[in-house]
Amino acid sequence: MESDWIQIDGMKYPLYRCHTLLIGSGAASLNCACHLAELGVNDLLMVTERLGGGTSNNAGSDKQTYYKLSLFGEGQDSVYEMARTLFDGGSMHGDIALVEASLSTREFFHLVQIGVPFPYNQFGGYVGFKTDHDPKQRATSAGPWTSNQMYQKLLVQVQQRKIPILDGFEVISLLTAVDDGEQRVIGAMALNKAELHLGPGALVVLQAENIVMGTGGPGGLYQTSVYPEGHLGSTGIALEAGATAVNLTEWQYGLASTQFRWNVSGTYQQVIPRYISTNQDGGEPREFLNDYFPTGGKLGTAIFLKGYQWPFDPHKVKNWGSSLIDILVYQENVVKKRRVFMDFGKNPSFKRQSDKFCFEELEPEAFKYLEKSGGLFGTPIERLAKLNPMAIELYAQHGIDLYHEPLEIAVCAQHNNGGLKGNIWWESNLRHLFPVGEVNGTHGVYRPGGTALNSGQVGGCRAADYIATRYARYIITGEQFSRLSQNQVGAKIRLMNQVLKNIGESGQTLMSFRKEFQERMSQVAAHIREPEAIRVAVKEAETQWRRINSGEVQLSDSSELVAFFQNRQLCLTQLAVLKSIEFYLQKGGGSRGSYLVLDPNGEHISDQMGSAWNFRLENEELRRYTLECLYGYEKFKLRWVPVRPIPADDFWFENVWRAYLDKEIYE
Q1: Contact of 183 with 538, CB cutoff 8 Å
Q2: What does the alpha-carbon distance between residue 286 and residue 289 come to, in Å, rounded to a whole number?
C-alpha cells in the first residue's frame, strides 16, 4: 500500500494505492485476504466502517450452523449430491452450486487448521446433524458463536500477515472506468469518521486494481431485524456503480429476540417453551397459540419443529405446520399490537387443568428426539440446561435470565438470499469487483441452514484464486487514475457541499428518513406481502429516493455525513428490492421461500385464520429462473434469466490436469 495525495477541484485529499482493496472486515473478506496473501498478492488494504462490527462477529443462534459435505457416517454423500441440494432450492445456478459443494471441505478444513473448534469424535470424525432444507446430516457447529470464532481466528491470520486495515472509514462510492468496452472498478471513496468535522475534508480516495466487497447483507432495510445493531450493508453503492443484483426478492425471516438480537432457533424451540402475548404494559398474558391448534400434541410438535424449520416457510403453514407460529406471532405483534414472549419457565398448558406436560402427545419426530437426548422431563429451561447450557449462558451475558424472565420475540429479517450477481469466480458484471459473503446473491429460494457461512468462505477463496491468476498485474497508473476519477470524486464532493448547506435548515431528519423506509419494508416487504401494498410502496420509495437526492433532508452537523450516505445507499437498495418484488408478483409469482403472498382468492390456511389470510400458491416455474436487477440512468432494468444447469460429470483427469496447467479453467 502506498499513501499519497490527489487534487480535485483545487483541493488535496488523501490517496491510498493498493493492488487489491477489501471492503468490509467479516469472515468472507478476512478469508479472501488470507488466501490472497498465500497466493503471493501482498499489496492489500482492508477498509472497514468498524472492525468487528459486522454480522460475522455479532450474529448466531443456539448452535450456529456451518454447512458442508458429509465427512463421517455410513450415509452416502458426494459433491454432486450436495450441489443438487443447493440447486434444487430453486433460482440458483448449477455451476455455482457445484463450486460451493466442491470447495466446502477445503474451506471447512482451512477453518479447522487455523483453530475454529468444530467438534469431532474419538475417531477424528466430524459428525454432522440435520438442518433446515437438508436431506443429509451435513451441518456442523462450533456452538452459538460459530461465525464469531471464524472471524476471530481469521483476523489473527490477517494480523500475523501484517495486512493493513483502515478502521473507522465508511466507503460511500465505487469508482469505475471503461476498459476494453466493459465497465470496471478502479477504486473507491470513503469518509474518515474521525474527521467528519472537516466536512468534505474527511474524504479519502482509494485506488485499486481489484475490489473485494464483503460488506454483508443490507440489514439496515428493516425495522424488525435480527441483524446486529449498526450493521447496514453497502449494496446500494454497488448498485449505483452499475453492478447487477440478483434475486433481491429472496430473504429469510424468522423468530428472533428483540432486546438482544439473536435467532431463537434450534434447541430454543426443541425444548418446547410456551408462547405468550401481553398488552404493551406487559399485562393480560395469554397463550395465544392455543386458539389455533387442535391438540396439545400438534402444538408442542409445531413448536419443536421450529428448531430446524426455523425460517418462515409458506409450505409449512397449513395443517398446523411450524410456520403457522410465525404468522400467529406476526398477528399478535403487528395486527393486534401486542408483545410476544417465549417463556422457558413453564410448559405449554394447552387448556389443561394442571401444569403437567404430556410428552406422549407429541408426534414421533419430536418425542424420539427428546427421548434420545434425555429431554423427557421437567420444564423448558431445565431441558435447555441439559441439552444446550451455552444457549442459556449466551443470554445471561447480555443481562437476560431465561430462568426467571420470558424472552421477547418477533419475526425478523435475518438474511438476504439474493444480493449482487457474481459468476463462478464471484466476479461481478462490473469487472474487477468481487462481492463475497452475504452481499453476493448466490443463494436461491431455499437453502439449507448454514450454507451462508460456507458460501462466504468459498467465495473468498475463489475471488483470491482468480485475482492472483488473472488480475495480478498493475494496469492503471496513478496519472490515469487521477484523470479517470476526477469527475466522479468531484460529483460526490459537490453532493456533500450541497447537503452541508442544509445544516440547521428545514427538512426531514436523517433518523426520521431511515425510520420511514424501515417501517415500510417491515410492514409490506417482509414475510407477509400483498401485491397492491407493494405497488404503493414502490411509489413511496421512488418519492423518497428523489427527496434525498434533491436535498430535502437536514443534517444537525457535519458528523451526520456518514448517516446521509448510509441512508442514501439504503434508500436505493430499498427501491431495488421493492421493484424486484413488484416484477415478481406481476409475473404471477406466489408464496415461496420465506414469504407469504396474500390473495383473497387464494389458498385457505384454516377456518380459525379466516379469508384475510388466504394466500397465493407458488408458481414453481419461476424457480427455473433468476431475477436480475440493474440500475442505471435513474431507471431499473429487470429481467428473468434461465438458471444454468449443474455441469455434467465428464471431467477426465488428464484433460483437467492440462486445463489447470494451461490456466484454461479461468477462461
Answers
A1: no
A2: 9
Are 477 and 17 contacting, i.e. CB atoms less than 8 angstroms apart? no
Q: What share of the chain is helix, strand, coil (3-state, %, to 5)?
A: 40, 20, 40
Query: Residue 2 corresponds to which cell in the numbers above?
Result: 502506498
Whole-number Å distance between alpha carbons of 552 and 498: 11
Amino acid (1-letter code) at residue 177: A
Task: Return the pLDDT at 551.
Answer: 86
Evaluate whether 456 touches 31 at the Cβ level (below 8 Å).
yes
130 grid coordinates: 440435520
Dihedral sign for Cα 187, 188, 194, 197, please.
positive
- Tell the residue number behind the cell numbers 496447467, with chain if given: 661
Which of 437, 421, 425, 451 minimizes the C-alpha distance to 95? 425
Cell of 10: 483545487
Q: Does an H or E element contain 523, and which?
A: helix 510-524
Query: Which grid cell is 95?
Result: 455451476
Determine the Cα–Cα distance for residues 331 and 37; give it in Å rounded to an integer: 51
> Confidence class of residue 62 from pLDDT cuts 50, 70 and 90?
confident
Distance CA 237, CA 488 (A): 13
Measured distance CA(643)–CA(620) in Å, rounded: 13
Residue 162 amino acid letter: K
In a shared domain, residues 403 and 514: no
Is 613 inside any structural domain? yes
How far is 10 from 283, CA to CA, in rounded Å? 64
Could you list the residue range(s) of the whole structural domain that residue 622 is in? 505-627
Asked whether residue 512 is domain-assigned, the answer is yes
pLDDT digits (tens, 9 = 90+) for 361-388: 999 999 999 999 999 999 999 999 999 9
For residue 512, how many C-alpha atoms fall within 13 Å in the half-sphere facing its CB? 10
Domain boundary among 347, 379, 414: 414
Between the alpha carbon of residue 432 and those of residues 253, 402, 490, the distances in Å are 32, 48, 23
Using the Cα atoms of residue 251, residue 576, residue 561 and residue 482 in order, give the sign of their dihedral.
positive
**Is residue 354 very low, low, confident or very high in pLDDT (cuts 50, 70, 90)?**
low
Q: 103 φ, ψ to 5°?
A: -95, 0
260 in the same domain as 409: yes
pLDDT in tens, 131-186: 888 999 999 999 989 999 999 999 999 999 999 999 999 999 999 999 989 999 99
Domain membership flag for residue 34: no
The three-state secondary structure class of 419 is strand
**Residue 552 has which C-alpha cell?**
430535502
Its pTM surpasses 0.90: yes
Rounded distance between C-alpha atoms, residue 625 and residue 643, angstroms: 5
Q: Which of 367, 388, 414 is the last residue of a domain?
A: 414
Where would I find the H helices in 427-477?
A: 451-470
